[in-house]
Write a structure and sequence with these properties.
With 348 residues, the chain is an alpha/beta fold. The chain has twelve helices and eight strands.
Length: 348
């Protein structure tokens, strides 16, 4: 027992020493564990914050994109509305121009349109043609007015529609005079035929190619004492290329729906009144079926004579619109552009 007691006595003091070491180790392990836990929590919290921040940025970015897309759609809607309003405004302006042409509201700088006493009528036009006694037009008019019985027996005259000067009328005498000057006397006195057969019947030739003076219109002139002197123009409607576009809607005069000159703003140039081809009043019998193919005089004869000749109020307006003029123009105060780069100067 003594030895056992001694052994116990020797072993007892060592226990507190081991316990302190063990506690220290446990404390150290606990601290380390706490530090690890805090670090892990910090990392997790940081990762959570980072993930939450990224999601917030993505959410806000998506909202901004949606807002921008919505604003873009609204801008496009407003732009479309503006385009529609501009288009309607241009159409309204075109309609006003067409109505002004229909009503003859292009006031001359020199002539008062209220004075109807100066307007040419058919008798006055015929009288002016008859003054050209030795012209083919003069012979034809005299034949129809003074020798109508003889003319009615001539088969080739049934396809003669008339003389250019007598096939259209204008409300404004000044404009009528300007367009006559633009065309020239020879064209104004041109004979208009429906068919080429009619053209061939007006003048015949012998084997050497000389004109047979006793036949055709030459023979008729000789029979009434009006021998034709010099050349004359004949226009064959069936050989003309007609206007291929549309007509102004609900217009009894079947005016041509021509593209109007436009400034970069989309508006018509100041002083533009319309196209000469649409300012002519045509007798109702010649508005339809002047040719076998069913075309009228406006889209055949007058379209080929004037094409897209523009009419302006003043020479200054016409010259300002020069870049928009490709096929000639006239102004009510006497200006004439015959074609691109060709000007008529001087006085009438």
């Amino acid at each position: 027992m003594d030895s056992s007691s001694d052994l116990q006595a020797h072993m007892i003091p060592a226990t507190p020493h081991l316990s302190a070491q063990t506690n220290a180790v446990l404390v150290d392990d606990s601290s380390a564990s706490m530090q690890v836990d805090q670090t892990e929590n910090s990392v997790v919290a940081r990762d959570g914050m980072q993930n939450g921040g990224t999601e917030l940025v993505i959410y806000n970015s998506k909202r901004l994109q949606d807002d921008l897309q919505m604003i873009g759609l609204k801008i496009k809607q407003h732009e479309d509305h503006i385009k529609l309003l501009k288009s309607q405004s241009l159409k309204l302006g075109d309609s006003i121009l067409d109505l002004q042409v229909n009503l003859g509201k292009y006031h001359s700088a020199k002539v008062d349109n209220e004075d109807h006493s100066n307007h040419q009528n058919e008798e006055e036009t015929t009288g002016q043609i008859l003054q050209h006694e030795k012209s083919a037009a003069g012979v034809l008019c005299q034949l129809k007015t003074r020798h109508c019985t003889q003319a009615s027996h001539l088969t080739f005259t049934k396809d003669v529609l008339g003389i250019v000067a007598s096939l259209g009328q204008l409300e404004d005498e000044n404009l009528s005079s300007l367009l006559s000057e633009y065309l020239g006397v020879d064209t104004m006195l041109a004979i208009v035929c429906k068919t080429f057969e009619c053209v061939k019947a007006l003048e015949t030739y012998d084997k050497e190619g000389h004109i047979i003076k006793s036949s055709g219109l030459h023979g008729l002139g000789a029979s009434i004492g009006r021998a034709i002197d010099g050349r004359f123009l004949v226009i064959c409607l069936e050989n003309l290329r007609p206007f291929a576009g549309e007509f102004v809607v609900d217009d009894p005069q079947r005016r041509l729906d021509l593209w109007k000159p436009r400034l970069p703003t989309g508006e018509c140039p100041p002083g533009f009144l319309g196209y000469a081809v649409n300012m002519i009043n045509i007798d109702s019998k010649n508005l339809f079926c002047a040719t076998a193919s069913g075309h009228g005089l406006r889209e055949t004869l007058f379209y080929n004579l004037f094409y897209r000749l523009q009419v302006y109020r003043t020479r200054a307006d016409m010259l300002l619109a020069l870049p928009l003029i490709s096929d000639g123009a006239i102004s009510l105060d006497g200006g004439i552009i015959r074609s691109s780069g060709v000007f008529s100067l001087g006085s009438r």
